[in-house]
């Protein structure tokens, strides 16, 4: 397998993504002419959640039913949406969009500092800190250093944007808890949690139903929600999907060979005809592997003339649960056995699935369903 690189399409999407996220501050400025900051944020996360939720289900994925995952969604929704969106909207009541963009670009500075103290594998180095500082200087030059002239006058607004940048950095570190959750599902879950959190605040403080926003303000909110939030997330996922989930075997071959030379004597290595380094397994390979594993189960059921049919959602669920970034498809066989084969065997023994029957399997929010009824998978 060759190394994955970004093609023309991915680079074009990256340009579109930068334009979408770069226009956020201008659209907020427009929307604030007729709406309060909390009402604006509620509209943004609420409509964005609906769009992303539709995308999740159309892609064959499902939202999790695990309360622990939703607890992380609510924390992430606060850190990544409610707090920064509200602070940015409130801060832009005092400062312009150019200043907001500059101050929001300090997020990497906070992330480097926080990661040094809160993680074990992201220690701060002089080169890393220098790179982030240079990046911040570049943003200042791009937006315009003249925007800094009013820094001391609108101090509270500037502090609000800095607080939003700090919150984004916290979200980046806390988001590690969502490893193993599909990015689109995680984004939809965060926006849903943010909507639930934001609704009572906006309804009590600003009473948005009393507002009379003009067409331009409404268009700005719709643009923020649909394009700068939901569509931006989808494009972001598309770009990520074009990249490897880790390094390709050709990238790590020099390091592996160095370790081999350290572990074995040259006399032994000289007797080897070839050293083979296997390519790693990626998530997109799982669909074919799921079909292979299901073929074995279908063969067992064929002895009883039972026909097994899984829809796209069920196969996607098995592929997701059966994949591990480190172990590849190794967990899949156990997932199929515990979530499908054993429950189906129980139904056969109970006489609920007879010989010659057609068994249809799908996936719901709580896991797999057999003939429309949820089944309880065995505990791992």
Distance between the amino and carboxyl termini: 33 Å
In the residues, how many domains can be counted? Answer: 3
Q: Order of strands across the widest beta sheet?
A: 1-2-3-4
Structural class: mainly alpha
Strand runs, count: 4
Provide a count of the helices.
Answer: 15
Largest sheet at a glance? Answer: 4 strands, mixed
Basic shape:
flat
Radius of gyration, rounded?
25 Å
Fraction of residues in H or I helices: 55-70%
| Estimated share of beta-strand residues | under 5%
Low-confidence segments, given as residue ranges, are none
Describe it.
With 380 residues, the protein is mainly alpha-helical. It folds into 3 domains: 8-241, no CATH class; 247-281, no CATH class; 283-374, Helicase, Ruva Protein, domain 3 (Orthogonal Bundle), CATH 1.10.8. Helix content is 64%, strand content 4%. The protein contains 15 helices and 4 strands. It has helices at 8-22, 24-31, 37-58, 67-91, 97-104, 107-118, 126-143, 155-174, 183-205, 215-241, 249-263, 266-269, 286-302, 312-321, 332-349; strands at residues 307-310, 358-364, 367-370, 373-374. A 4-stranded mixed β-sheet has the order 1-2-3-4. Strand 2 (358-364) and strand 3 form a beta hairpin. The longest helix is centred in the middle third of the chain and has 27 residues, at 215-241. The radius of gyration is 25 Å and the shape is flat. The two termini are 33 Å apart. The mean pLDDT is 80.
């Amino acid at each position: 397998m060759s190394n994955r690189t970004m093609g023309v399409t991915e680079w074009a999407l990256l340009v579109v993504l930068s334009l979408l996220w770069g226009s956020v501050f201008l659209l907020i400025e427009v929307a604030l002419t007729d709406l309060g900051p909390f009402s604006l944020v509620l509209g943004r996360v609420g409509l964005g959640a609906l769009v992303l939720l539709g995308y999740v289900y159309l892609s064959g994925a499902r939202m999790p039913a695990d309360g622990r995952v939703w607890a992380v969604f609510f924390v992430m929704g606060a850190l990544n949406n409610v707090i920064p969106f509200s602070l940015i909207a409130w801060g832009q009541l005092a400062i312009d969009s150019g200043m907001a963009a500059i101050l929001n670009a300090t997020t990497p500075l906070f992330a480097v500092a926080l990661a040094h103290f809160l993680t074990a594998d992201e220690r701060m180095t002089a080169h890393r800190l220098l790179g982030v500082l240079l990046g911040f200087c570049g943003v200042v030059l791009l937006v315009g250093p003249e925007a800094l002239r009013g820094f001391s006058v609108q101090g509270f607004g500037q502090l609000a944007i800095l607080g939003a940048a700090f919150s984004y950095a916290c979200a980046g570190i806390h988001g590690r808890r969502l490893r193993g959750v599909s990015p689109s599902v995680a984004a939809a879950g965060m926006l849903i949690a943010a909507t639930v959190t934001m609704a009572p605040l906006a309804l009590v403080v600003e009473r948005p139903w009393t507002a009379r926003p003009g067409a331009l303000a409404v268009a700005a909110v719709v643009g923020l929600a649909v394009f700068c939030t939901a569509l931006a997330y989808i494009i972001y996922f598309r770009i990520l999907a074009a990249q490897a989930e880790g390094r390709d075997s050709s990238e790590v071959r020099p390091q592996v060979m160095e370790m081999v030379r350290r572990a074995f004597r040259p006399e032994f290595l000289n007797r080897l005809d070839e050293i083979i380094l296997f390519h790693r397994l990626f998530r997109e390979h799982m669909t074919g592997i799921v079909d292979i594993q299901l073929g074995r189960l279908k063969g067992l059921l064929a002895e009883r003339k039972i026909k097994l049919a899984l829809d796209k959602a069920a196969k996607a669920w098995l592929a997701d649960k059966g994949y591990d970034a480190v172990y590849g498809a190794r967990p899949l066989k156990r997932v199929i056995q515990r979530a499908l084969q054993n429950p189906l065997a129980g139904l056969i023994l109970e006489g609920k699935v007879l010989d010659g029957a057609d068994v249809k399997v799908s996936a719901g929010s709580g896991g797999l369903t057999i003939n429309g009824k949820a089944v309880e998978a065995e505990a791992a």
